[in-house]
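Recap from last week: sequence in, structure out.
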Amino acid sequence: MPKLWNETIAAHRDAVRAATLEATADLVHRHGLASVTMTQVAEAVGIGRATLYKYFPDVDAIMAAWHERQVTGHLEQLAGIRHGAGNPAERLKAVLEAYARISYQHHGTELAALLHHGGHVSRAQQHLQDFIRDLIGETAAAGDLRNDVAPEELAVYCLHALAAANTLSSQEAVHRLVAVIMSGLKFPDSATGNA
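Predicted structure tokens:
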């Protein structure tokens, strides 16, 4: 097959897949996961049900793919912030705030609870922990954070503390949570001689 033909087919498949993910997410948002059928998804996308089954075996698989795409997008967003302007401490705070906002925006839904199980979530959590660890290490090396606790351990503390964002009642509370975390990452007053 000519290269152009293969590229056209691949682009078409990608477009159908993306449309399927969006249509299914919209249907699930409006009707609930248990109410959405493959027939409804196929109709919303504008393809036959048999064609849809070539892409996904069921609605759960579609939603898992949708969630994996969302998680990847969140990680890319955080990476962009990490490599943005500012010193390491400013970038760390910006990353923690962005992650807290993401957690806050997606809290408490049945769908979130269902989708946060699976291999892609475990891999993403490990990637995020390594990412935060490295950023904490950079910030500590610049002298802006405590260095009496290993960056790996501090990253675990941060992520567990940030998990509280999904239970908070406001964006202001999320902002305060990050301020408390950042305060805990700094040297204690006694260690800096500011007793």
